[in-house]
Design brief:
alpha+beta, eight-stranded mixed β-sheet, 12 helices, 15 strands, 39% helix, elongated, RNA-binding
RNA sequence: GGAGAGAUGGCCGAGUUGGCUGAAGGCGCUCGCCUGCUAAGCGAGUGUAGGGUUAAAAGCCCUACCGAGGGUUCGAAUCCCUCUCUCUCCGCCA
């Protein structure tokens, strides 16, 4: 548990860390360029280098001028105290001051050019990430369970849900529009049961601390986790405010420790958080238009970790296992794939997707995405830690993964547990959360 | 929405007739000493980031940072402006 964390307040969000990023790119230019090309990003080296060079020319000059100013100001103070005439020095310093102002303006202009370049460079994939162009190159690394055998033609979940009277898409679109759902009766209860079920397992068995964050965040948070500035179109923004609806709990939860320096003993930190998620789904017009798969608003239970760099890859494995555990308890057949370089998200260094089997649609569908961001988000958000007995600080590594997407879990349950008579069996593990009922009965049975 | 108060180092808390304060003092923490345990006591140290020096590190030098941004000035934690946040009272409200 974290207690009384000091908040370092002196920086303006990415200024201090901004430099580290710069130095790394400068020192590993070719390697950076190559790994970014693997994920389809073209880094303009010459533009970067010329701006960086200008910056490094100005900085020492500016610092020397400031040094001079500091020294002479001391001298002026001394002379005045001793009743001497400091007028000549003062007038000389006027010129120096003017020069400092000019250099400062030049430097900040350079920073303004550099910042947008740096902020849109994606993370560098981990060595273990397979090189590939798109999702067709994602290797399956393991599979659990098997496809259920059905003696009838399975229906897609939207038909099941509407027949059972637990999902109402028509009225949802009257209330809000397309890509929204209205859950009713046992449908609403099922969604709520899954949230509690997932939270309880992660809290009680996997050691996560539950948090319930704001569902709107400011732009500093969105920049910290990497949604801004590049993916503004995917977000819902509150008009007239610096508030965005969160697209995932990753954003508020990772930003819990923005601009903080944690103690070594605090790490690792595990958080689990239920939140609704809001996504514009810009650019996915006509895709998954039916059912619960792709909604503007959906529920998700999210796992978030902060850890020391040397542990982050084993933490990724255990986080992924924690997410898988939910599917296993629910008896849902799934597979785990590693995202290849071309399919990797902007901020991630490595990602495993859990894909659940959907018999109604006869395909595997992403239900969880578990990523290690290494220090990418920590650098942007200024999340550090201090090792015992050593001076200086280091960036933490951050990870997160869905544990699980709740709406898609409902989809999987409806499609995998549908019966010939139209009812849907509730898996045993979930029954305590459903007031003990064993199935959602078909209206025809009553 | 109206009226006030405030934001300083890990914490508490000085510093507001601008100058030698990166920042008194206390607490905490670290190391050493002392005390046959514990407590107390004594001494020293104790921010972050960037740049330079170095083969590297240590060390040393420089710069920046007293909520954020801008301004005045030879010089600002100290003066002015804007913003953010926190707190108190009144009103309103789930």
């Amino acid at each position: 548990m974290v207690k009384d964390l000091p908040i370092s307040k002196q920086r303006n969000s990415y200024r201090g860390s901004f430099m580290l990023d710069l130095k790394f790119i400068r020192n590993h230019l070719d390697a950076v360029k190559t790994s970014l090309r693997n994920r389809g990003y073209d880094l303009d080296i010459s533009a970067f280098e010329s701006i960086d060079r200008k910056r490094r020319e100005i900085l020492p000059v500016l610092e020397n001028l400031r040094h001079r100013r500091n020294k002479v100001s001391e001298e002026i103070a001394r002379m005045k105290r001793e009743g001497q005439d400091a007028t000549p020095l003062i007038s000389e310093m006027k010129k120096v001051s003017q020069e400092i102002k000019e250099k400062e303006a030049a430097l900040s202009e350079i920073d303004e050019q550099l910042k947008p370049i740096l902020m849109v460079i994606p993370n560098i994939p981990h060595d273990s990430v397979p090189v590939g162009r798109d999702e067709t190159s994602n290797p399956v690394i393991r599979t659990w369970g098997r496809q259920p055998e059905m003696q009838f033609e399975p229906l897609p979940h939207w038909e099941i849900g509407e027949k059972l009277g637990i999902l109402d898409f028509a009225r949802a679109s009257k209330i809000a529009g397309t890509r929204f759902a209205l859950y009713k009766g046992l449908g609403a209860k099922l969604e709520r049961a899954l949230i509690s079920f997932m939270l309880d397992i992660h809290i009680n068995e996997h050691g996560y601390t539950e948090v319930l964050p704001p569902f709107m965040v400011n732009s500093a948070c969105m920049t910290g986790t990497g949604q801004l500035p590049k993916f503004k179109e995917d977000l819902f923004k509150i008009e007239g405010w610096d508030f965005y609806l969160i697209p995932t709990a990753e954003v508020p939860v990772t930003n819990i420790h923005r601009e903080e320096t944690l103690k070594e003993d605090d790490l690792p930190i595990y958080y689990v958080s239920y939140t609704p998620c809001f996504r514009s789904e810009a650019g996915s017009y006509g895709k998954d238009t039916r059912g619960l798969i792709r909604q503007h608003q959906f529920n998700k239970v999210e796992l978030v970790k902060f850890c020391k760099p040397e542990n982050s890859y084993e933490e990724l494995e255990s986080l992924t296992r924690n997410a898988e555990e939910i599917l296993r308890r629910l008896g849902l057949h799934y597979r785990v794939v590693t995202l290849c370089t071309g399919d990797l998200g902007f901020s991630a260094a490595k990602t495993y997707d859990l894909e659940v089997w959907l018999p109604g649609q006869k395909l595997y569908r992403e239900i969880s995405s578990c990523s290690n961001f290494e220090d990418f988000q920590a650098r942007r958000a200024g999340i550090r830690f201090k090792r015992k007995g050593s001076s200086g600080t280091e960036l933490v590594h951050t990870l997160n993964g869905s544990g699980l997407a709740v709406g898609r879990t409902v989809v999987a349950l409806l499609e995998n547990y549908q019966q010939q008579d139209g009812s849907v069996v509730i898996p045993e593990a979930l029954r305590p959360y459903m007031a003990g009922i064993e199935s959602i009965p078909s209206p025809l049975q009553e």
